[in-house]
Amino acid sequence: MGARFLDDEARAAFKQAIEAVENASAVEVVVAMRRRSARHLHANVVIGVAVAFAGLAVMLFAEHTFSLPAILIDPFVVGVLAGAITELLPPVKRLLTRPAARRRVVDRAARATFVERGVHHTRARSGLLVYISWLEQQIALVADVGLAQALPQGALSSLEAALTAVMRRGGAATARRLAEAAPQMAASLPHTNDDVNELPDAIDEGIA
Q1: Which of 34, 47, 56, 124 could connect to 86 by a Cys-Cys bridge, CB 3.0–4.6 Å?
Q2: DSSP output for 7-69
Q3: Alpha-carbon gap, residue 102 to 105, rounded angstroms
């Protein structure tokens, strides 16, 4: 699951980023990474059907004469195999999925993870989920109501877009960009003396 993205350097950088935000503000950060947010099985079907028809065309128009059972069965067997192999090719699935559709499934999965991880269980309702979806190459931010109301309008979506843009440069770069948000978080929701660490800081690597 994006092992190169979440290598030792990235893990250390995310730890530092979480500490930077939480030490500067009352925000509680939870980072969750998923291999994918949806199966995108339509890509398997598209590739499988395309390969099957290509195989059928080759058999029909080739100089070599194929038997009728071979023409009937072989292209579809090859198509099924091609569809199965597509499961191992995330870039192909991304290419065959519209950006809006990828964004939609990532947002849905992020909201579900927000609830599952209990990010809303802070006293000041100041939780922030940083949801990273590897296959879709998207990052979604879900803020609890206290934080969402404190932040300037558009601040969360701007940070979300910035994190997604830097994601291709690796996990460490993404974490450093998250740490850069600490001053803005501090200005919107300042740290107080009675703030305690209410949510786990370890990266949630649940399997999707």
Answers
A1: 47
A2: -HHHHHHHHHHHHHHHHHBS-EEEEEEES-S---HHHHHHHHHHHHHHHHHHHHHSSSPPPHH
A3: 5
Residues paired with residue 133 on neighbouring β-strands, in sequence order: 34, 138
* Amino acid in position 140: A
How far apart CA 159 and CA 128 sit, in angstroms, is: 12
Q: Give the start-to-end residue ranges of the domains of the chain.
A: 8-38+98-188, 41-95
Mean pLDDT taken over the chain: 93
- Residue 125 DSSP one-character state: S
User: What's the rounded Cα separation, in Å, for the pair 168 and 68?
Assistant: 49
What 3-state class would DSSP assign to 201?
coil
What does the DSSP 8-state code read for residue 137? T
**Pair 110, 122: CB distance under 8 Å:** no
Q: Could you tell me where the DSSP H helices lie in 62-154?
A: 68-86, 90-95, 99-116, 145-150
- pLDDT tens by residue, 129-167: 999 999 999 999 999 999 999 999 999 999 999 999 999
The amino acid sitting at 146 is G
CATH topology of domain 8-38+98-188: Diaminopimelate Epimerase; Chain A, domain 1 (3.10.310)
